[in-house]
Design a protein that fits this description.
Length: 323
């Protein structure tokens, strides 16, 4: 809205407040503890595909970072014996502005001790259905593996297809991009096909959970003990939009630190900001992270769907461009 007024109507903000209250009630009834962790840290994410905002301090001359997720601090609480916890907080990611993206957004993140990621999928389904209400009465829940998804929508096996086959598949689906601009990283090609061809078809009139991503896309999830090619990770899609991203959490501190080091190296090779990984987090899980699963859910997107609106700017008081 022009002249400095909110991008969301006051009526919408009132409905948003009710949804946030319902989320808190959901976790209160399930005895999950609400926590708050710092937004600013001397450490940041080293994920190649997520860019942090750096903040300079005039007091101690130390560069800090606005968190892109509360994950590391929350896992430090888990290691300290908090039990199951959740948090609703603002997160910050430098990047594109669109109907589904804003530099500052609201995240709901929660961790369930003693839960498998399959059990967590059920809880995510329960929460989303509660928030969406009658809209979900006739909506099925679909669980599909990453491999079956690619076979179904593109007729290829994402675990065995060659780079040439992935490039040909992209071309056949109207994505004309050269090998020189993409390179030979398999995950880049898979992500390109997923975002441009498959994602718009997911979650149409149903809640679609995509499970068991390639091990190379594990992030902070555990590799399956039954299949070393697969990470115990899932994402929820609704009407072609990713709503949530969840893991069976990796509890091995040595493997976690090695992943951080490898991600740092990739960032440097790609000319991105060299960000220190969270050493306090590594210390904490060395003490012992309990077996748990966790998920991050985009609150703004969920509210957008619940209220039948067309973009997250319609459910946020102010966006990055009018704040």
């Amino acid at each position: 809205m022009e002249n400095g007024f909110p991008t969301a109507s006051i009526e919408t903000l009132q409905k948003r407040a009710l949804i946030l209250a319902a989320i808190r009630s959901f976790f209160w009834e399930r005895k999950v503890l609400e926590v708050e962790t710092p937004v600013l840290s001397q450490y940041g994410t080293v994920d190649l595909h997520i860019d942090s905002f750096a903040v300079e301090s005039g007091f101690d001359q130390i560069q800090r970072y606005l968190h892109t997720s509360p994950e590391f601090a929350m896992k430090r609480l888990l290691a300290a014996g908090s039990g199951s916890i959740y948090q609703i907080c603002h997160c910050f990611r430098d990047g594109e502005k669109s109907r589904l993206h804003n530099h500052e957004f609201t995240m709901l993140e929660w961790y369930r001790t003693g839960f498998s990621y399959i059990e967590l999928i059920r809880e995510v389904d329960d929460l989303v259905r509660m928030i969406l209400g009658p809209k979900t009465e006739y909506m099925d829940t679909e669980c599909i593996t990453y491999q079956v998804m690619f076979n179904t929508y593109l007729g290829i096996n994402p675990f065995s297809a060659t780079i040439e086959q992935l490039q040909n598949c992209a071309s056949q689906n109207g994505i004309n991009i050269s090998f020189d601009s993409m390179g030979d990283d398999r995950d880049d090609w898979l992500n390109l096909l997923l975002s441009h061809v498959i994602e718009p078809q997911l979650g149409k009139g149903k809640l679609t959970f995509v499970m068991d991503y390639p091990a190379s896309q594990a992030a902070l999830s555990r590799i399956s003990p039954y299949d070393p090619n697969v990470a115990e990770r899932f994402e929820l899609y609704l009407e072609g939009v990713e709503i949530a991203n969840g893991f069976q959490e990796l509890c091995d501190p040595q493997e976690q630190e090695q992943r951080f080091i490898e991600e740092q190296k990739k960032r440097i090779e790609n000319g991105k900001m060299d960000i220190p990984y969270d050493k306090n987090f590594i210390k904490a899980i060395n003490h012992g992270l309990p077996e748990c699963s966790g998920v991050a859910l985009g609150v703004d997107r969920l509210v957008m769907f619940a209220l039948g609106l067309g973009g997250i700017e319609e459910v946020m008081p102010f966006t990055a461009y009018v704040s």
